[in-house]
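Hi again,

Forgot to attach this to my earlier email, sorry! This is the prediction with HQG bound. I've pasted everything inline since the attachment limit keeps bouncing my files.
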Amino acid sequence: MSFTDTSKFMSLILRHKPEAIGISLDEHGWANVDELIAGIAKTHKFNMDILEEIVRTDNKQRYSFNEDKTLIRANQGHSIPVDVELDEAEPPAELWHGTGEKFVSSIDKQGLIPKSRLYVHLSKDEETATNVGKRHGKPVLYKVKAGDMYKDSYKFFLSKNGVWLTKEVPVKYLEKI
Ligand code: HQG
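Structure tokens for the complex follow:
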């Protein structure tokens, strides 16, 4: 099992399916580090050193430890309903959303919805959004009029790893590029 496979498995556990290794997250999304290590080590080469290396080198800084490293959680991206104490923040005038071509007709009718996750994920620049879109096939970019949404009282949150989150983006705030 490669380092990347282990890291992907950890993201599955901490965002979507802790029961896959028989653990649970608390209401703030924290997992107990000893339980996580024991659970993952049943099927993957895993220990505290590997966990610390994954957290330190993760290309999107997906995870955070608590102060004494007894707890760990994903910074964003959850489908299970946890409150990771996101910071509410005023967004820049424009944010970006990258998606796949196959979703465009539905988005143009419905706007952006969180689907299986808790929030719609928005990027601060076009390049990041293009990379997100590529995960779903041929990428399509939307410019999101985040400043206008904010003026209209929509709430925005900035995750610890720099992803902008909001509950929905109605069609009138979207511009397809
Ligand atoms: C689309 C990755 C039809 C939406 C990334 C997206 C991100 C609709 C897909 C994070 C729709 C959901 C999240 C509508 C939205 N009709 N399709 N009305 N509204 N969609 O994976 O934003 O590497 O749940 O456009 O970098 O792609 O995992 O969301 O294409 O930050 O850390 O439904 O995941 O980060 O797909 O990605 P996802 P996402 P990680």
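The beta strands are 31-32, 63-65, 71-74, 87-88, 95-100, 120-122, 139-144, 157-158, 164-166, 174-176. The chain has a mean pLDDT of 96.

That should be everything now.

G.
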